[in-house]
Write a structure and sequence with these properties.
2 copies of one chain form a homodimer. Chain A is of the alpha/beta class and 424 residues long. Chain A folds into 2 domains: 238 residues, Aldehyde Dehydrogenase, Chain A, domain 1 (3-Layer(aba) Sandwich); 149 residues, 3-Layer(aba) Sandwich (Aldehyde Dehydrogenase, Chain A, domain 2), CATH 3.40.309.10. Helix content of chain A is 43%, strand content 21%. Chain A has 14 helices and 16 strands. In chain A, strands 10-9-11-8-7-12-13 form a 7-stranded parallel beta sheet, with helices on both faces. A 4-stranded parallel beta sheet of chain A has the order 5-4-3-6, with helices on both faces. The first copy, chain A, is globular, with a radius of gyration of 24 Å. The mean pLDDT of chain A is 95. Chains A and B meet through helix 10, helix 14, strand 13 and strand 16 of A and helix 10, helix 14, strand 13 and strand 16 of B.
């Protein structure tokens, strides 16, 4: 344990030292390094897959669920996809060095902001090994050093991936120490990491709600939290019901296991009689189980082949991450807004309506990272929003909110060009 | 104590409730409220000054220093100045509701960001009662509710000022609860406040380094720290020595008690023989005491009428906040950069040079909120930078860096106008 702590501290120092050089690394070298990583992931796939095999067999033997095993598993095609993601990051504009808000003050001082990296990012994540490469490439491109702490289940996979990335970066001229990987799986190391203020400038947790809670409550440095999405779609009395079926279907079914999927459908009572059976039948075909309030249940009971369950209190404000949706009838926009304020997680919320003022009120009044009129909440994503890559989705208001790209891994400094000015 | 805790929790709830209404309050009402406050500060000055008199006499009797007594004291002219500051805030553009980065995606979605308040700001400050009005007016203009916790020494002044502001705001139609003032001076309340995550969205500490340290180490929510400025001015071998004298003189003497004042002068050895006596004689006239390294001491010893002290280790990296400066000779730009990296606090750093590449390297490589070429560090100020008002100067990289205005008291949300789009 003491050895592991010492190793962690050393890696922290090395990352800090590297970060000072990374801040000035040319875009050319960073991109060359990223392309090297992309290539190495293919070239070294037999080593990576062998390491992954060890993790997979151990996890299987210990009784890991199929869903979790699937998250853990790498394959040639998955490595190919990870490699392509790295190429995508290489192709993005370099955020570092961007000058903005430059202007000349009346006294002749030229003043503006210059974008700079944050420094050292700590990433704490669970079983998906692709995060190792994902976070490393985004940190490298944004000029940050990174300290990676992956899950125990994927330790061999993560270690192999980190080694490949480290070597590929070194070959391109990236300063040593830019990517640090913690080999020890001691749990206490996480707590120690969270106290390394002054070394780690930002912690990014990637994993389930428990991990995120643990980290955001205990980290001494800033944390970008997010990922928990309790998303509502409200079908207004003035909705185009065709659009409302398509949007709610897409929001629930297109990828039910992610944070921007629909959890709760709110339907205005004036259109429920017509709308609910239509969406329910479509959802039923996709296997969606519906947890309905009493009024919705009354309407849907006569419809055949539906998986209906009476909603319980715990269904409101629940992130299902599966083919399950809560359904609630409301009598007004105000009731919908109140429900969302009470139960939403501040992630993504949508209204379907053809009424202009209703749409505007919803967009104004809902306090969430992403608020939609007449579109699926599934669009909440860095790629979909045109940010190129995504480091995560922030549900906090500080620093960044919603999908975060490379720019959100940076800060700025004020630069001032004078010619001898003094303050009067 | 229990009563005080209950009062704090109630004020927290009231502030949270008010913040939801404040977010949609019209610019007109906010400005009317600010002008009411400005007027009331003059109309009610006898009450305010009477309250201040109580604090002043008590502080004096308890042996408070002259400097601190001066900070605590209000007068008709000081109230006039505070009132004018509030008018200035009223005249600034409203940051809330600004739409930016709006664009149309290839799928027809119109997507952009809308500026929104942060929610509830907690302000913890020491003896200067003007902060009560200062922070309240900035929070109101930016649509945030505020919970004020002032110093014990100024409790009567702060309470009187808060009451005036609260009533003036209510008269203009600002929702009740927007400005909360904690009447109890129990120390434990601060610790409790720092744990009110979910109620208080951001803590702003205003006071000495100890207060700031206490708060940034213990707050569960984000804190905007700053205020500690260990500022260097480096006079390069290629400096215009006339500019270098004017800049170093201004940076040290114009207002020595503030964070952006010069603490340490670094002088290239090639110009030290000429430059040091010139600046030292100017500084001496203003009463500056100079803590010199050995080489600087050798040069300055023969000059008459200087207050010279051999520098000790503790002089490097020290924020003097007085007419004291450390002086160190360096043999290169690199040595200056290393010294600044080791001892600077990331606030404001300046170079004086006529060499283009040297200036560029300094601007690029120094890691501080504000980096100057050929100007005085005294310019680091929201007003001087054209931000209108200043809530503080951040020396952290997260969210905001350097002088912070109204915009830095806001977040944003993504708003998306669709026409039925679903994710493919």
């Amino acid at each position: 344990m003491e050895l592991a702590l010492k190793e962690l501290e050393e890696k922290g120092r090395a990352a800090k030292a590297a970060s000072k050089k990374l801040a000035f690394l040319s875009t050319e070298i960073k991109n060359k390094a990223l392309l090297n990583v992309a290539e190495a992931l293919i070239d070294k796939q037999s080593e990576i897959l062998a390491a992954n095999r060890i993790d997979y067999e151990e996890a299987k033997a210990s009784g890991m669920s199929e869903a979790m095993l699937d998250r853990l598993m790498l394959s040639p095609s998955r490595l190919e996809a990870i490699s392509q993601d790295v190429e995508t990051v290489a192709a993005l504009p370099d955020p570092v060095g961007e000058i903005f808000e430059m202007r000349t003050l009346p006294n002749g001082l030229q003043i503006g902001k210059k974008r700079v990296p944050l420094g050292v990012i700590g990433a704490i994540y669970e079983s998906r090994p692709n995060v190792t490469i994902d976070i490393s490439s985004l940190c490298l491109k944004s000029g940050n050093a990174v300290i990676l702490r992956g899950g125990k289940e994927a330790i061999n996979s993560n270690s192999a991936l980190a080694k490949v990335a480290q070597q590929a970066c070194l070959n391109a001229g990236v300063p040593e120490g830019a990517i640090q990987f913690i080999e020890s799986t001691e749990r206490a190391l996480v707590n120690h990491m969270l106290q390394m203020k002054g070394v780690i400038d930002l912690i990014i947790p990637r994993g389930g709600p428990e991990l995120i809670k643990l980290i955001s409550e205990n980290a001494a440095m800033p944390v970008i939290t997010g990922g928990v999405g309790v998303c509502h779609t409200y079908v207004d009395k003035s909705a185009d019901l065709g659009k409302a079926v398509a949007i709610a279907y897409n929001a629930k079914v297109q990828r039910p296991t992610v944070c921007n999927a629909l959890d709760c459908l709110l339907v205005h009572s004036q259109v429920a009689q017509t709308y609910l059976p239509s969406i329910a039948q479509e959802w039923a075909k996709a296997g969606v189980e519906m947890h309905c309030d009493e009024q919705a249940l009354d309407i849907l009971k006569p419809v055949s082949s539906l998986k209906l369950v009476p909603a319980v209190d715990g269904d409101w404000g629940k992130e299902f991450l599966s083919l399950t949706a809560a359904i609630k009838m409301v009598d007004s926009l105000d009731e919908a807004l109140e429900h969302i304020e009470k139960y939403g997680s501040g992630h993504s919320e949508a209204i379907v309506t053809e009424d202009y003022s209703t749409a505007m009120r919803f967009l104004n009044e809902v306090d969430a990272a992403c608020v939609y009129a007449n579109a699926s909440t599934r669009f909440t994503d860095g790629g979909q929003f045109g940010l190129g890559a995504e480091i995560g989705i922030s549900t906090q208001k500080f620093h960044a909110r919603g999908p975060m790209g490379l720019k959100e891994l940076t800060s700025y400094k004020w630069i001032i060009y004078g010619s001898g000015q003094v303050r009067p």
